[in-house]
Design a protein that fits this description.
Luciferase, domain 3; eight-stranded mixed β-sheet; single chain; GMP Synthetase, Chain A, domain 3; 21 helices; seven-stranded mixed β-sheet; binds 5'-O-[(S)-butoxy(hydroxy)phosphoryl]adenosine; about 675 residues; Rossmann fold; alpha/beta
């Protein structure tokens, strides 16, 4: 597999230069790198902050708009709008523009998991045709502008084609991660009221075929309700389009289920892009919050397009020869912005990979980097820690000489993982971009620009030009360097920030615009700045945990656990994990049963897998008689966290039931 001749030429193009220099504990781009960088003049920061709206408007002018906007930014707290009155189609920018400039350049490379199957590539010309064909299918299925379309697909080219196909006709895509359970899919389909679902027969994961269609069927079935369930039944889905990927046997429901190939084969490869309003919905993507129900983040066409394009282009310093690989799944925001929209809007070649980076051997990811001559590699700290654990000699077998930038996202990257990634993957010659952002922000908000710097291990860096962030104390006052507080984003925010929570404006206001008032966006991350203004992210301060980079809500897990008929109460907390960063453990109080504890534990774990997905697996379940509570009945998760961490518990006099702490100590 090493040295695929088709891509070998690239290696000659990429001559090693001094990409990085170190001054004290800071890293900067080397002279050679700086000279070639798209953005290398530090004055960009100052200029952008003098008039952020003007700054973003200038960037927006580089996109094609069918109608120019009247106003750059309008603020009606907690709501805000960008490029008001403008109209565009994001796919005209991502496809038609590239058709003019680089029709025969490869836009998308797909690497299947089984090593005996061939990769697929699409030039910009071919991608344009495939998207148009699929957009025409959607029209035949009577999908109109503004209609929601569910996408439940693995990492295959059709996932990208389906998203772009929706955007082409102004339909709103709602992608659901393929490892989410039927129940999780059902919830999202109910909330969006999607009438169309795009899925696949199956896909390969760690050598096995996952029967995705079966999960989709279960989500659509009225019977798929769990014990104690008083929730809504069924969905509004009328048609299911099924991609044939793994060839596994599936049940096709006549009148409802249609094969992708049968539909697409008949369609023309021309479809006019439908202009949509700048503030019209482009997609909904669900994410976990503090409470039980996932939140549908609403992202809009104009602002998202501008932010996706320029954060991708400037942060990854895209050049015509770059080959970009982001390992995140399209089911997450990283997959939306940096495997689909961002690179395509910049005319950059992207690689997507179906499977697990360590399958069939721990070096698979190195082989992919070499095979395609990846220049920019973007992954999560969990993956880095896993690669490191497999052994440094494995990665040393590979030169990875085409890499010029490496990136990290999704969770704090500790110094040990940073050093290893920088020295062993980047071979000490690639800048390491630690990028901070959220599903809500739509694109990266904090990371130093590669042509400018500085970079510092375990610090995300400087906010993107035009983005004002601050660290606030409990009193809402800006904190000086070194002091930890709440990370917030100040007006005019950024064009790609979410505009609402789908069908839940109340939750939008409460979650993001309450703690410090309706003009300050609360990220729910703790952070501090150093004396250079570099931001260090400390992690979530709410009930969200990041498990292997996946965002899970402990509140959501508790509400699933409490559906079990024998559970009276539960508390889920995250505890540190060497590889995954954090893992959830549950404390449960059992009622009305003589069932053996082990059976209950297994049932709880299975219930979570069924209702959320396999990645929500609890590391440990502790059966306890009571949970520590305040006098008003609030469970003190902090006490549980300290108990497990072996920390001093401090003053327990505020607890209504301090005696339970001693009981819990016996079981942990
Ligand atoms: C949460 C958002 C950003 C796309 C993928 C995750 C954490 C994200 C970093 C980073 C430390 C980070 C934060 C944030 N996070 N990037 N570079 N350093 N923490 O999106 O699933 O919505 O999660 O991920 O806690 O709030 P998400």
């Amino acid at each position: 597999m090493r040295g695929n001749p088709k891509f070998a030429r690239r290696k000659e193009l990429m001559k090693k230069t001094d990409n990085v220099i170190k001054k004290g504990d800071l890293y900067y781009p080397g002279e050679e790198f700086k000279k070639k960088a798209l953005v290398s003049d530090a004055s960009v920061y100052k200029k952008a902050l003098e008039d952020p709206v003007k700054f973003w408007e200038k960037l927006a002018e580089e996109l094609v708009w069918t109608k120019k906007w009247d106003q750059g930014f309008v603020h009606k707290p907690p709501h805000f709008e960008w490029f008001v009155g403008g109209e565009l189609n994001i796919t005209e920018n991502a496809l038609d523009e590239n058709l003019k400039k680089r029709k025969d350049k490869i836009a998308l490379i797909w690497e299947p998991e089984p090593t005996d199957q061939k990769q697929k590539t699409f030039t910009f010309g071919e991608l344009y045709q495939e998207v148009n064909k699929f957009a025409n299918c959607l029209k035949k299925l009577d999908v109109k502008k503004g209609d929601r379309v569910g996408i439940y697909l693995p990492m295959i080219p059709e996932a990208i084609i389906a998203m772009l196909g929706c955007a082409r006709i102004g339909a709103v895509h709602a992608v659901v991660f393929s490892a989410f359970s039927p129940k999780a899919l059902q919830l999202r389909l109910q909330d969006t009221e999607a009438e169309i679902l795009i899925t696949a027969d199956g896909y390969f994961r760690r050598g096995e075929i996952v029967n995705l269609k079966q999960n989709a069927d279960a989500a659509l079935s009225d019977e798929n309700t769990s014990q104690n369930d008083r929730e809504k039944r069924g969905t509004s889905v009328k048609k299911v389009v099924v991609v044939k990927r793994a060839g596994n046997e599936v049940r096709m429901q006549s009148g409802r289920d249609l094969w992708w190939d049968d539909l697409v084969g008949k369609e023309s490869d021309e479809c006019q892009p439908v202009p949509v309003g700048s503030e019209d919905l482009l997609f909904i993507l669900y994410t976990s919050g503090s409470t039980g129900k996932p939140k549908g983040c609403c992202h809009v066409a104009g602002g998202y397009a501008v932010q996706a394009k320029f954060t991708a282009k400037w942060i990854f310093d895209f050049k015509e020869n770059d080959i970009f690989w982001s390992t995140a799944d399209v089911g997450w925001i990283t997959g939306h912005t940096y495997s689909c929209y961002g690179p395509l809007l910049s005319g950059t070649t992207v690689v997507i990979y179906e499977g697990s980076p360590d399958w069939p051997s721990p070096e698979r990811w190195c082989q992919i980097i070499e095979k395609y001559g990846i220049t920019t590699f973007y992954t999560a700290p969990t993956a880095i820690r896993m690669f490191k654990k497999y052994g440094t000699d494995l990665v040393r077998k590979y030169k990875l000489a085409t890499l010029r930038l490496i990136g990290s996202v999704g969770e704090p990257i500790d110094e040990t993982a940073w050093d290893w990634y920088f020295n062993e993957v980047g071979k000490g010659n690639c800048l390491l971009l630690d990028t901070w952002w959220q599903t809500e922000t739509g694109g990266i908000l904090i990371t130093s620009l590669p042509g400018i710097g500085p970079f510092k291990p375990s610090f995300a860096g400087l906010p993107f030009p035009g983005v004002k962030v601050d660290i606030l104390g409990e009193d809402g006052k800006s904190l000086p360097a070194g002091k930890e507080g709440d990370l917030v984003v100040l007006p005019p925010f950024s064009p790609g920030l979410l505009r609402n929570i789908y069908k839940n404006p109340k939750k939008y206001l409460e979650t993001y615009w309450s703690k410090f008032g309706s003009k300050v966006y609360l990220t729910s991350d703790g952070a501090y700045k150093d004396e250079n203004g570099l931001v260090r992210i400390l992690g979530r301060v709410d009930d969200v945990i990041k498990v292997a980079g996946h965002r899970l809500s402990t509140g959501e897990m508790e509400s699933v656990i409490e559906k079990h008929p024998n559970i009276a109460e539960s508390a889920v907390i995250g505890i540190p994990d060497e590889i995954k960063g954090e893992v959830p453990v549950a404390f449960i109080v059992v009622k009305n049963t003589n069932k053996p504890a082990d059976d209950i534990k297994t049932e709880i774990i299975n219930l979570l897998r069924k209702e959320i997905g396999p990645f929500s697996s609890l590391k440990t379940v502790y059966l306890v008689k009571d949970l520590p509570k305040t006098r008003s009945g609030k469970i003190m998760r902090r006490v549980l966290r300290k108990l497990l961490g072996g920390e001093e518990l401090g003053d327990l006099s505020t607890l209504a039931n301090p005696e339970c702490v001693e009981e819990i100590k016996k079981v942990v």
